[in-house]
Every structure is written in C-alpha cells, then in structure tokens.
Amino acid sequence: xxxxxxxxxxxxxxxxxxxxxxxxxxxxxxxxxxxxxxxxxxxxxxxxxxxxxxxxxxxxxxxxxxxxxxxxxxxxxxxxxxxxxxxxxxxxxxxxxxxxxxxxxxxxxxxxxxxxxxxxxxxxxxxxxxxxxxxxxxxxxxxxxxxxxxxxxxxxxxxxxxxxxxxxxxxxxxxxxxxxxxxxxxxxxxxxxxxxxxxxxxxxxxxxxxxxxxxxxxxxxxxxxxxxxxxxxxxxxxxxxxxxxxxxxxxxxxxxxxxxxxxxxxxxxxxxxxxxxxxxxxxxxxxxxxxxxxxxxxxxx
Length: 301
Prior knowledge:
Elements: E1 4-8, H1 32-43, E2 47-52, H2 57-63, E3 74-78, H3 100-105, E4 115-119, E5 122-123, H4 126-138, E6 145-152, E7 163-170, E8 176-187, E9 193-197, E10 200-204, E11 209-217, H5 220-236, H6 246-255, E12 260-266, E13 271-272, H7 279-291
Parallel strand pairs: 1-2, 1-4, 2-3, 6-12
Antiparallel strand pairs: 4-11, 5-13, 6-11, 7-8, 7-11, 8-9, 9-10
C-alpha cells in the first residue's frame, strides 16, 4: 500500500497578509504546495489529504485540487474550532485554532495507511520526500515506530535575520529524545551558527538536526492523539490561546514509552515564506531550481 501525504493547510497566513498557501511563486504561478505534491508523487506517495478551513474551501478546490485530477487522489478534511471530544466546548472568546496536532486528528477517518505530515507553506526538497516515503513503506503493518525528517540547521537559515527552530536531541541509535524550541538562531559574522538567549549565545554545529514539521506516522497515532487530546483539554481547554502541537504529542509518547521517533537525515535545503518580504527570494529560488533542471516548467503539463 502506498503511503499518504497529509498537508496542513488550515493556517490563514496572517503575518504574510493573505492565504500564502494559494500564492503562485513558481515560474507558472505554481504554489509551494505544488512542488511538494510533485515531489511526493515522484517518491511514490499514493494519496494526498489536505486539512483546510471551511471558509476557503471553494477557492482551494478551484485553485489547488483541480490541478491534481488524474495525477493523484485528493481528499479534503476540515479543522473546525468546535470539533472537540464529547463533553468539551469552545470557551467564550476563543478564536485561535487548537494547533497542529488537532489538525492532524481531522484525518483519522480518511487515512488508514502509513502517512507523512507536512506544512503547506514550506519547501522541503525532493530528497526529503524520498527519505520519508522509503521509511513509511518500511513500517507498514507496525505501530509506534514514527519518524521525523531532521534538517541540518545550516540548511534552514534565513538571509533576513534570526529564525526559530526546534533543535533536536538524539540518542546513539538516532532516535529523538527531545526537541527544544530556539527562537533566535543565526549565522554570525564569524561564520558560526549560534542561538541567542537572555543569558548569552550558544554555538550550534552545522549539521545539528532541527524539526521543520515533517513527520512519519502510522494510523495508531490517531488513537493516541484522541486519548491525549482529552487530557490536554482538561488541563488547558479554557485557555484562549493554548495549542495542541505535534511535538507535544510526540514528546508524550516518547516519555511514556508508547512510541519511538527516528530522526531521518536529509541533504535538502528548506525555504519558505513567513512574511511578505520573503516572497521575492522564494520566487527567485524556484526560478533557479527550474533553470537547474530540478523541476519542469510548467510543473504540471
């Protein structure tokens, strides 16, 4: 059975100033998602599931889903604020979504095979999709043997300033033991990568693995997530900005011995759009990838 690609596309892109998932950045107005889908098809994924907000379903079907017809099966699921376990309700005044792992839970009724999770607005690179697809095929029929693609921090930096990254710690066998969010990582003038905190600066080695939210799971992950989401809501459900993130779930499963998470190395270089000022750099990078023969243009003939 071919693995499924689960794309998190429910964010509204408020900092970017619009729906950056639908922004045409390639030479023929391809979106970042288009390149991810293209790479996933080449790597052997058999289905794509998008989780989106209902408010932009029509635009999404017309501008995104339509171009994949006859290329790969596509399904849509929706992240609704009030999609909560029985006995829980949205607290008055809450507008913020419940986070990335709540978004993942929306796929539980349509995904029955090993699956990958990615962000819609990140460019991951074709090598990463191949690494992920190969791993997902190897864990079919198992439970609790998850993985994440660990990007080398040197391949995730920005030319515009500091970046926030989940810095990964692993054991001798290459399994994840912890992710620590570092909010100010930068290559300084002496060429060394460091993260900056109130008490000073700490060096990071070039190949230190960081999480870019690219995960490999089997369907049992939904069961674990449903159970732990109840606990999360019991403790944080009345907070207006609490979020149920994927790393929170994975950390819980590792700590309790319910699952392991292997860190998969990739040589790919990540890039993406966070602010509107990033847009031209991404346009230029896609143009260069086409010029180098990495992608055809147009991407989907």
